[in-house]
Design a protein that fits this description.
The complex is a heterodimer of chains A (about 80) and B (about 400). Chain A contains three helices and one strand; from the N terminus they run H-H-E-H. By secondary structure, chain A is mostly helical. In chain B, strand 8 and strand 9 form a beta hairpin.
Chain lengths: ~80, ~400
């Protein structure tokens, strides 16, 4: 097995076994200050609280009934 | 072998079976990724039966499995063929499967007869529309070079006349970026209430994108922000909003951390010849210079266990999982996009083990910023919550 493939297999195994963790947004070196993604934990808490209380989020252009009934849009490819 | 990918761990993982009834398409879009779209072949009914049987007998299928007829224009096949195809699928699946068939079509052949067929079978319909004619006809061309917008709109009119629910998928090219008001105005006037935006991707035989230019990231963001504003005022739902909110509400599953395109067998594509693919559907039919064909096996010949142990799957999964790990480690947007699409990584970076692509920057990061930014604004105004009706 060549070195490149060994590295790939190790990375895959480490990831699937949980040895590589998800980053928190604040740990990312690529994120600049002021990005919404930096506040994802706060957003998630609000979203989850909303869902747990059986309430809907008011977000412009959110889901419609058709969208909720259609989980598998072709979100790949050109056209 | 990667231990977590025993067939037992893959049980019930397939949500979507893409069946290529035909590779043929009656138009020739400039950005199309399908290599065999001039080939007038059709999938034998026995292959349909074998494909559905393969999914369920190998334990991948679930009762809410959707079959989508795609990777060619599905309406170039006759309705009688689909009657046979649906019967074959029904017979090959367990009794507990609730048949769900979907068409992704360019709309040009839709008429009242097709609408009656859609209604009779409860089919789900997606129409590819790039907005008004001036945008649509730039890329969605017939083989004689003429545009296809007028014919597509005849199809949309038939859907509306027959009250068939449908959504639209709009490919965003560089020309689209300057026209968000026209795009949303077009969909509003056409009576389209649900739209998804696919950015023009570099993948398969489509080796370039008009979006791949300096400055287009900011332009795309401005476009999408304006789309959200205008869509809200017209009551149009945007697929990407739902996607971001859904991902943001839930932490990635440690057992199954990726998305449907980078986790094995979440999507299975079977070509008209019976070849099996997984991961991004666009990988089907590609002859990659380094990886060659990414066909994993054949529905008549290979079990899931043989495929998972095979060289093609092992090589592909090693690359994809490595890319996933790198995305999880390095990218703040991983909780939203969950590792990107192998087809985009392969098309742009030459390897599925890579990380950020143009497709990520526009189709994931900027969209996430726009949607999450709006949630934050609503949270700031403390009016984010409302009682469900």
């Amino acid at each position: 097995m060549d070195k490149h493939k060994k590295h790939l297999l190790w990375s895959a195994a480490a990831f699937t076994l949980g040895l590589v963790s998800m980053p928190s947004a604040s740990q990312s070196l690529s994120v600049e200050e002021g990005l919404a993604i930096d506040r994802l934990p706060e957003i998630r808490a609000v979203l989850r609280d909303t869902l747990e209380q059986g309430r809907d989020l008011i977000v412009p252009s959110g889901s419609t009934k058709l969208a909720q009934d259609w989980p598998n849009w072709t979100n790949w490819g050109n056209g | 072998m990667i231990p977590v990918l025993s067939p037992e761990r893959l049980r019930g993982r397939t949500k979507l079976l893409v069946l290529q009834g035909t590779p043929f398409c009656n138009i020739d879009c400039t950005y199309c990724y399908l290599p065999d779209r001039a080939v007038k072949a059709r999938m034998p009914v026995e292959t349909i039966r074998a494909a559905v049987r393969w999914i369920f007998e190998n334990g991948l299928g679930r009762d809410d499995l959707t079959i989508i007829w795609h990777a060619g224009e599905p309406l170039t096949l006759p309705r009688a063929w689909y009657e046979e195809a649906f019967t074959a699928a029904r017979q090959a699946a367990p009794f507990s499967w609730r048949p769900r068939h979907a068409f992704q079509t360019n709309g040009m052949l839709i008429d009242d007869a097709w609408c009656a067929f859609f209604a009779a079978h409860g089919l789900r319909v997606g129409v590819s529309l790039d907005g008004p004619a001036a945008l649509h006809d730039l890329h969605r061309k017939r083989r004689n070079g003429k545009g296809s917008h007028e014919a597509a709109m005849h199809g949309v009119a038939a859907l509306k006349r027959n009250r068939i629910p449908f959504h639209a998928i709009c490919v965003v090219t560089e020309a689209t970026l300057a026209r968000p008001d026209e795009v949303i105005g077009f969909f509003a006037e056409a009576g389209v209430t649900d739209v998804g935006f696919n950015i023009e991707e570099i993948e398969g035989i489509n080796t370039g994108s008009t979006l791949a230019k300096h400055g287009n990231r900011a332009r795309f963001r401005a476009f999408f922000e304006r789309v959200l504003d205008r869509a809200a005022s017209h009551g149009i739902g945007i697929r990407e909003v739902r996607g971001v909110l859904g991902a943001a509400a839930n932490l990635p599953d440690k057992e199954w951390p990726g998305n449907d395109q980078n986790m094995p067998f979440a999507i299975v594509t079977v070509t008209h010849q019976g070849a099996i693919y997984t991961f991004s559907p666009e990988l089907a039919g590609i002859a990659h210079p380094r990886l060659g064909s990414m066909a994993l096996g054949h529905v008549d010949a290979d079990s899931l266990a043989e495929i998972v142990d095979g060289q093609v799957f092992q090589t592909l999964w090693a690359e994809i999982a490595s890319g996933l790990a790198a995305c999880a480690r390095d990218c703040a947007y991983f909780p939203i996009c969950r590792g990107g699409a192998p087809s985009n990584k392969l098309g742009e970076l030459g390897t599925c083990a890579g990380t950020e692509t143009m497709a990520c920057r526009l189709g994931q990061q900027e969209i996430a910023e726009a949607v999450l930014g709006r949630v934050l604004n609503e949270m700031g105004r403390d009016v984010v919550l409302a009682k469900a009706s």
